[in-house]
Amino acid sequence: MTPRPFLLAAATMTCMAALAPAFAPAHAADLLYRLTATATLPSTDTGWDYIKMEPDSNRLFIARDADGLTVFDVDANKAVTTVADSVGANGPLLLPQYNRGYLAMTDGSFLSFELDSLKPIQRLQLDGNGGINSAIHDPLTRRIHAIVGTRPSESTWYTLDAATGKLLGSKTFPFRKMDDPATDGKGRLFAPARRDNLILLLDSKTLAERARWTAPCNVSKVRYQAHSNRLLAACGGDNPMFFALDPDSGRVVASLPIGNGIDGFAIDEQRKRIITSNNEGTLTVINQEGPDSYSLAGTVSTRPNARMMTMDERTGRLFVVTAEFTRTPPDGNGETSNRYHPDSFVVLTYQPQ
Protein backbone atom coordinates (compact mmCIF):
# COMPACT_ATOMS: atom_id res chain seq x y z
CA MET A 1 0.00 0.00 0.00
CA THR A 2 1.37 3.41 -0.95
CA PRO A 3 1.95 5.65 2.10
CA ARG A 4 -0.60 8.51 2.44
CA PRO A 5 2.04 11.31 2.51
CA PHE A 6 3.40 10.09 -0.82
CA LEU A 7 -0.10 10.09 -2.35
CA LEU A 8 -0.72 13.64 -1.13
CA ALA A 9 2.62 14.83 -2.49
CA ALA A 10 2.00 13.16 -5.83
CA ALA A 11 -1.47 14.67 -6.06
CA THR A 12 -0.12 18.12 -5.22
CA MET A 13 2.59 17.85 -7.88
CA THR A 14 0.03 16.69 -10.45
CA CYS A 15 -2.22 19.68 -9.68
CA MET A 16 0.71 22.08 -9.89
CA ALA A 17 1.77 20.61 -13.22
CA ALA A 18 -1.77 20.98 -14.55
CA LEU A 19 -1.93 24.60 -13.41
CA ALA A 20 1.60 25.51 -14.50
CA PRO A 21 0.67 26.90 -17.94
CA ALA A 22 -1.67 29.41 -16.32
CA PHE A 23 1.19 30.82 -14.23
CA ALA A 24 3.94 30.53 -16.83
CA PRO A 25 5.75 33.76 -17.78
CA ALA A 26 4.38 35.45 -20.90
CA HIS A 27 6.35 34.90 -24.07
CA ALA A 28 7.65 38.07 -25.71
CA ALA A 29 5.32 37.60 -28.68
CA ASP A 30 2.32 37.53 -26.33
CA LEU A 31 3.13 41.08 -25.22
CA LEU A 32 2.53 42.40 -28.76
CA TYR A 33 4.43 45.68 -28.17
CA ARG A 34 6.87 46.88 -25.55
CA LEU A 35 7.88 50.42 -24.67
CA THR A 36 11.56 50.67 -25.62
CA ALA A 37 12.27 54.41 -25.66
CA THR A 38 10.91 57.72 -24.42
CA ALA A 39 11.92 61.27 -25.27
CA THR A 40 10.61 64.35 -23.50
CA LEU A 41 10.58 67.52 -25.61
CA PRO A 42 10.47 71.18 -24.60
CA SER A 43 6.83 72.24 -24.85
CA THR A 44 4.32 74.91 -23.90
CA ASP A 45 0.75 74.23 -22.79
CA THR A 46 -0.35 73.71 -26.41
CA GLY A 47 -2.09 70.65 -27.80
CA TRP A 48 -1.08 68.59 -30.83
CA ASP A 49 -2.59 66.61 -33.67
CA TYR A 50 -1.29 64.44 -36.53
CA ILE A 51 2.13 62.80 -36.56
CA LYS A 52 3.56 61.31 -39.76
CA MET A 53 6.65 59.33 -40.75
CA GLU A 54 8.48 60.44 -43.88
CA PRO A 55 8.44 57.36 -46.16
CA ASP A 56 11.66 55.29 -46.10
CA SER A 57 13.21 57.70 -43.62
CA ASN A 58 14.05 58.10 -39.95
CA ARG A 59 12.20 61.43 -39.70
CA LEU A 60 8.97 61.76 -37.76
CA PHE A 61 7.00 64.99 -38.26
CA ILE A 62 4.94 66.03 -35.24
CA ALA A 63 2.29 68.75 -35.58
CA ARG A 64 2.30 70.56 -32.22
CA ASP A 65 0.05 73.57 -32.86
CA ALA A 66 1.66 76.59 -31.14
CA ASP A 67 4.97 74.72 -30.84
CA GLY A 68 5.10 74.24 -34.63
CA LEU A 69 6.06 71.25 -36.76
CA THR A 70 8.76 69.29 -34.94
CA VAL A 71 11.12 67.02 -36.89
CA PHE A 72 12.13 64.05 -34.73
CA ASP A 73 14.85 61.46 -35.51
CA VAL A 74 13.30 58.13 -34.48
CA ASP A 75 16.59 56.23 -34.72
CA ALA A 76 18.45 58.71 -32.49
CA ASN A 77 15.33 59.28 -30.33
CA LYS A 78 15.69 63.05 -30.33
CA ALA A 79 14.16 66.19 -31.83
CA VAL A 80 16.20 67.65 -34.68
CA THR A 81 14.53 70.95 -35.56
CA THR A 82 11.28 72.84 -36.00
CA VAL A 83 10.11 73.80 -39.49
CA ALA A 84 10.14 77.58 -39.93
CA ASP A 85 6.82 79.46 -40.08
CA SER A 86 4.94 76.42 -38.78
CA VAL A 87 3.20 77.82 -35.69
CA GLY A 88 -0.34 76.45 -35.84
CA ALA A 89 0.76 73.06 -37.21
CA ASN A 90 -2.07 70.53 -37.40
CA GLY A 91 -1.66 67.97 -40.20
CA PRO A 92 1.54 67.19 -42.17
CA LEU A 93 1.61 65.53 -45.58
CA LEU A 94 5.01 64.28 -46.79
CA LEU A 95 5.59 63.63 -50.50
CA PRO A 96 9.24 62.77 -51.26
CA GLN A 97 8.39 62.04 -54.91
CA TYR A 98 7.93 65.81 -55.32
CA ASN A 99 10.43 66.84 -52.63
CA ARG A 100 7.49 68.54 -50.97
CA GLY A 101 6.03 68.69 -47.52
CA TYR A 102 2.67 70.26 -46.83
CA LEU A 103 1.11 71.30 -43.56
CA ALA A 104 -2.52 71.99 -42.68
CA MET A 105 -2.68 74.90 -40.23
CA THR A 106 -5.09 75.86 -37.47
CA ASP A 107 -5.59 79.35 -38.95
CA GLY A 108 -6.93 78.00 -42.26
CA SER A 109 -3.65 78.30 -44.17
CA PHE A 110 -1.63 75.61 -45.94
CA LEU A 111 2.17 75.65 -45.68
CA SER A 112 4.42 74.09 -48.32
CA PHE A 113 8.13 73.42 -47.80
CA GLU A 114 11.06 71.61 -49.40
CA LEU A 115 11.20 68.17 -47.84
CA ASP A 116 14.97 67.77 -48.05
CA SER A 117 15.96 71.20 -46.71
CA LEU A 118 12.74 71.96 -44.76
CA LYS A 119 12.83 75.46 -46.28
CA PRO A 120 9.32 77.03 -46.46
CA ILE A 121 8.02 77.76 -49.95
CA GLN A 122 4.69 79.47 -49.30
CA ARG A 123 1.89 79.72 -46.77
CA LEU A 124 -1.35 79.86 -48.74
CA GLN A 125 -4.53 81.05 -47.02
CA LEU A 126 -7.31 78.62 -47.93
CA ASP A 127 -10.16 79.08 -45.48
CA GLY A 128 -11.30 82.06 -43.45
CA ASN A 129 -13.76 80.22 -41.23
CA GLY A 130 -11.43 78.02 -39.20
CA GLY A 131 -8.56 75.60 -39.38
CA ILE A 132 -7.51 73.09 -42.01
CA ASN A 133 -7.44 69.70 -40.32
CA SER A 134 -5.34 67.53 -42.64
CA ALA A 135 -4.56 66.59 -46.23
CA ILE A 136 -4.19 63.48 -48.40
CA HIS A 137 -2.53 62.75 -51.76
CA ASP A 138 -4.20 60.90 -54.63
CA PRO A 139 -1.47 59.34 -56.82
CA LEU A 140 -3.70 58.87 -59.87
CA THR A 141 -4.58 62.55 -60.24
CA ARG A 142 -1.40 63.84 -58.54
CA ARG A 143 -3.63 66.07 -56.46
CA ILE A 144 -3.85 66.98 -52.79
CA HIS A 145 -7.14 67.33 -50.98
CA ALA A 146 -6.96 69.51 -47.86
CA ILE A 147 -9.89 68.96 -45.48
CA VAL A 148 -11.25 71.57 -43.07
CA GLY A 149 -11.96 70.83 -39.41
CA THR A 150 -15.40 70.69 -37.81
CA ARG A 151 -17.83 73.31 -39.14
CA PRO A 152 -21.40 74.34 -38.18
CA SER A 153 -23.06 72.68 -41.19
CA GLU A 154 -20.74 72.21 -44.21
CA SER A 155 -17.22 70.93 -44.89
CA THR A 156 -14.96 72.17 -47.67
CA TRP A 157 -12.21 70.32 -49.50
CA TYR A 158 -9.46 72.35 -51.18
CA THR A 159 -7.74 70.67 -54.13
CA LEU A 160 -4.13 71.52 -55.00
CA ASP A 161 -1.51 70.33 -57.44
CA ALA A 162 0.81 68.02 -55.49
CA ALA A 163 3.97 69.00 -57.37
CA THR A 164 3.54 72.78 -57.21
CA GLY A 165 1.06 73.49 -54.42
CA LYS A 166 -1.12 75.50 -56.81
CA LEU A 167 -4.76 75.77 -55.73
CA LEU A 168 -6.97 74.08 -58.33
CA GLY A 169 -10.42 74.39 -56.78
CA SER A 170 -12.68 73.54 -53.88
CA LYS A 171 -15.84 71.60 -53.14
CA THR A 172 -18.27 71.88 -50.24
CA PHE A 173 -20.09 68.90 -48.75
CA PRO A 174 -23.22 69.11 -46.54
CA PHE A 175 -21.58 67.54 -43.48
CA ARG A 176 -20.29 69.11 -40.25
CA LYS A 177 -17.25 66.88 -39.93
CA MET A 178 -15.31 65.00 -42.60
CA ASP A 179 -12.04 63.16 -42.06
CA ASP A 180 -9.23 62.04 -44.35
CA PRO A 181 -10.49 60.04 -47.33
CA ALA A 182 -8.74 56.89 -48.51
CA THR A 183 -7.71 56.43 -52.13
CA ASP A 184 -7.39 53.20 -54.10
CA GLY A 185 -5.11 54.92 -56.63
CA LYS A 186 -7.45 53.83 -59.42
CA GLY A 187 -10.04 56.57 -59.42
CA ARG A 188 -11.95 56.02 -56.18
CA LEU A 189 -11.92 58.07 -52.98
CA PHE A 190 -13.64 56.82 -49.83
CA ALA A 191 -14.63 59.79 -47.68
CA PRO A 192 -15.95 59.45 -44.12
CA ALA A 193 -18.60 61.84 -42.80
CA ARG A 194 -18.07 61.16 -39.12
CA ARG A 195 -21.12 62.65 -37.43
CA ASP A 196 -23.45 61.28 -40.10
CA ASN A 197 -22.18 57.67 -39.96
CA LEU A 198 -21.53 57.71 -43.70
CA ILE A 199 -18.82 56.78 -46.19
CA LEU A 200 -19.03 58.50 -49.56
CA LEU A 201 -17.63 56.90 -52.70
CA LEU A 202 -16.24 59.74 -54.82
CA ASP A 203 -14.72 59.98 -58.28
CA SER A 204 -11.12 61.04 -57.64
CA LYS A 205 -10.99 63.28 -60.72
CA THR A 206 -14.28 65.15 -60.31
CA LEU A 207 -15.19 64.49 -56.64
CA ALA A 208 -18.65 63.53 -57.89
CA GLU A 209 -20.49 61.19 -55.55
CA ARG A 210 -20.91 57.67 -56.96
CA ALA A 211 -22.46 56.08 -53.89
CA ARG A 212 -22.88 56.46 -50.14
CA TRP A 213 -22.89 53.75 -47.52
CA THR A 214 -24.07 53.73 -43.94
CA ALA A 215 -21.30 53.01 -41.45
CA PRO A 216 -22.07 51.16 -38.20
CA CYS A 217 -20.64 53.99 -36.09
CA ASN A 218 -18.99 57.46 -36.16
CA VAL A 219 -16.36 56.55 -38.74
CA SER A 220 -13.23 58.72 -38.67
CA LYS A 221 -10.43 56.51 -40.04
CA VAL A 222 -10.44 54.75 -43.41
CA ARG A 223 -7.62 52.99 -45.27
CA TYR A 224 -7.81 51.10 -48.56
CA GLN A 225 -5.90 47.81 -48.63
CA ALA A 226 -5.17 46.77 -52.21
CA HIS A 227 -4.27 43.09 -51.77
CA SER A 228 -7.51 42.31 -49.92
CA ASN A 229 -9.64 44.89 -51.75
CA ARG A 230 -11.05 45.98 -48.43
CA LEU A 231 -11.66 49.31 -46.79
CA LEU A 232 -10.36 49.09 -43.22
CA ALA A 233 -11.98 51.61 -40.92
CA ALA A 234 -12.44 52.64 -37.31
CA CYS A 235 -14.85 54.72 -35.26
CA GLY A 236 -14.85 56.75 -32.09
CA GLY A 237 -17.83 58.13 -30.24
CA ASP A 238 -20.20 56.01 -28.18
CA ASN A 239 -19.60 52.85 -30.21
CA PRO A 240 -15.83 52.53 -30.77
CA MET A 241 -15.10 49.78 -33.24
CA PHE A 242 -12.99 48.54 -36.13
CA PHE A 243 -14.76 47.33 -39.25
CA ALA A 244 -13.89 46.05 -42.71
CA LEU A 245 -15.99 46.95 -45.73
CA ASP A 246 -16.22 45.61 -49.27
CA PRO A 247 -15.62 48.73 -51.42
CA ASP A 248 -17.40 47.21 -54.41
CA SER A 249 -20.69 46.75 -52.57
CA GLY A 250 -20.48 48.85 -49.40
CA ARG A 251 -21.15 45.76 -47.29
CA VAL A 252 -19.58 45.54 -43.83
CA VAL A 253 -17.89 42.13 -43.68
CA ALA A 254 -16.44 42.17 -40.15
CA SER A 255 -16.29 44.30 -37.01
CA LEU A 256 -14.61 44.27 -33.59
CA PRO A 257 -14.69 46.57 -30.54
CA ILE A 258 -11.69 48.84 -29.88
CA GLY A 259 -10.62 51.24 -27.13
CA ASN A 260 -12.26 54.60 -26.48
CA GLY A 261 -11.06 57.75 -28.23
CA ILE A 262 -9.30 56.48 -31.38
CA ASP A 263 -7.16 59.00 -33.23
CA GLY A 264 -4.35 56.85 -34.66
CA PHE A 265 -4.69 53.95 -37.11
CA ALA A 266 -1.95 51.77 -38.60
CA ILE A 267 -1.75 48.65 -40.74
CA ASP A 268 1.30 46.41 -40.28
CA GLU A 269 1.32 44.31 -43.45
CA GLN A 270 4.34 42.26 -42.40
CA ARG A 271 2.76 41.10 -39.14
CA LYS A 272 -0.80 41.14 -40.49
CA ARG A 273 -1.91 43.50 -37.74
CA ILE A 274 -4.18 46.51 -37.50
CA ILE A 275 -3.51 48.88 -34.60
CA THR A 276 -5.53 51.74 -33.16
CA SER A 277 -4.27 54.23 -30.58
CA ASN A 278 -6.90 55.36 -28.14
CA ASN A 279 -7.27 58.41 -25.90
CA GLU A 280 -8.02 56.15 -22.92
CA GLY A 281 -4.33 55.13 -22.94
CA THR A 282 -4.33 51.91 -24.94
CA LEU A 283 -3.41 50.34 -28.25
CA THR A 284 -5.95 47.91 -29.68
CA VAL A 285 -4.18 45.23 -31.73
CA ILE A 286 -6.15 43.20 -34.27
CA ASN A 287 -5.01 40.17 -36.26
CA GLN A 288 -5.96 40.12 -39.94
CA GLU A 289 -6.47 36.49 -40.94
CA GLY A 290 -8.10 37.16 -44.30
CA PRO A 291 -10.14 39.79 -46.17
CA ASP A 292 -13.21 39.01 -44.06
CA SER A 293 -11.60 37.46 -40.97
CA TYR A 294 -10.22 39.44 -38.01
CA SER A 295 -9.61 38.71 -34.34
CA LEU A 296 -8.55 40.71 -31.30
CA ALA A 297 -4.89 40.03 -30.50
CA GLY A 298 -4.87 42.09 -27.32
CA THR A 299 -4.78 45.52 -25.72
CA VAL A 300 -1.49 47.25 -24.85
CA SER A 301 -1.39 50.01 -22.24
CA THR A 302 0.21 53.35 -23.14
CA ARG A 303 -0.50 56.60 -21.26
CA PRO A 304 -3.58 58.77 -20.76
CA ASN A 305 -4.38 61.02 -23.73
CA ALA A 306 -1.95 59.12 -25.99
CA ARG A 307 -4.44 59.24 -28.83
CA MET A 308 -2.16 59.94 -31.78
CA MET A 309 0.14 57.34 -33.35
CA THR A 310 2.01 56.44 -36.50
CA MET A 311 4.11 53.47 -37.63
CA ASP A 312 7.62 53.14 -39.05
CA GLU A 313 7.11 50.98 -42.15
CA ARG A 314 10.77 49.95 -42.03
CA THR A 315 10.60 48.29 -38.61
CA GLY A 316 6.99 48.11 -37.46
CA ARG A 317 7.77 50.39 -34.51
CA LEU A 318 4.89 52.50 -33.25
CA PHE A 319 5.32 56.10 -32.14
CA VAL A 320 2.78 57.55 -29.74
CA VAL A 321 2.74 61.07 -28.29
CA THR A 322 1.15 62.61 -25.22
CA ALA A 323 1.76 65.12 -22.43
CA GLU A 324 0.90 65.51 -18.78
CA PHE A 325 -2.27 67.49 -18.21
CA THR A 326 -4.77 68.85 -15.72
CA ARG A 327 -8.43 68.43 -16.68
CA THR A 328 -10.78 71.26 -15.78
CA PRO A 329 -14.09 70.66 -13.99
CA PRO A 330 -17.18 70.48 -16.24
CA ASP A 331 -18.54 73.86 -17.31
CA GLY A 332 -22.22 74.78 -17.58
CA ASN A 333 -22.56 72.56 -20.65
CA GLY A 334 -20.79 69.66 -19.02
CA GLU A 335 -17.65 70.19 -21.13
CA THR A 336 -14.12 69.77 -19.80
CA SER A 337 -10.75 70.73 -21.27
CA ASN A 338 -7.13 69.75 -20.74
CA ARG A 339 -4.42 72.18 -19.64
CA TYR A 340 -1.11 70.67 -20.73
CA HIS A 341 1.89 70.89 -18.43
CA PRO A 342 4.88 72.74 -19.95
CA ASP A 343 7.91 70.65 -20.92
CA SER A 344 6.04 67.37 -20.50
CA PHE A 345 5.42 66.43 -24.15
CA VAL A 346 6.77 62.93 -24.76
CA VAL A 347 7.39 60.63 -27.72
CA LEU A 348 6.91 56.95 -26.82
CA THR A 349 8.44 54.20 -28.97
CA TYR A 350 6.84 50.75 -28.97
CA GLN A 351 8.70 47.80 -30.47
CA PRO A 352 6.69 44.92 -31.96
CA GLN A 353 7.25 41.55 -30.27
From TrEMBL:
<dbReference type="InterPro" id="IPR011048">
    <property type="entry name" value="Haem_d1_sf"/>
</dbReference>
<protein>
    <recommendedName>
        <fullName>YncE family protein</fullName>
    </recommendedName>
</protein>
<keyword id="KW-0732">Signal</keyword>
<dbReference type="InterPro" id="IPR015943">
    <property type="entry name" value="WD40/YVTN_repeat-like_dom_sf"/>
</dbReference>
<feature type="signal peptide">
    <location>
        <begin position="1"/>
        <end position="28"/>
    </location>
</feature>
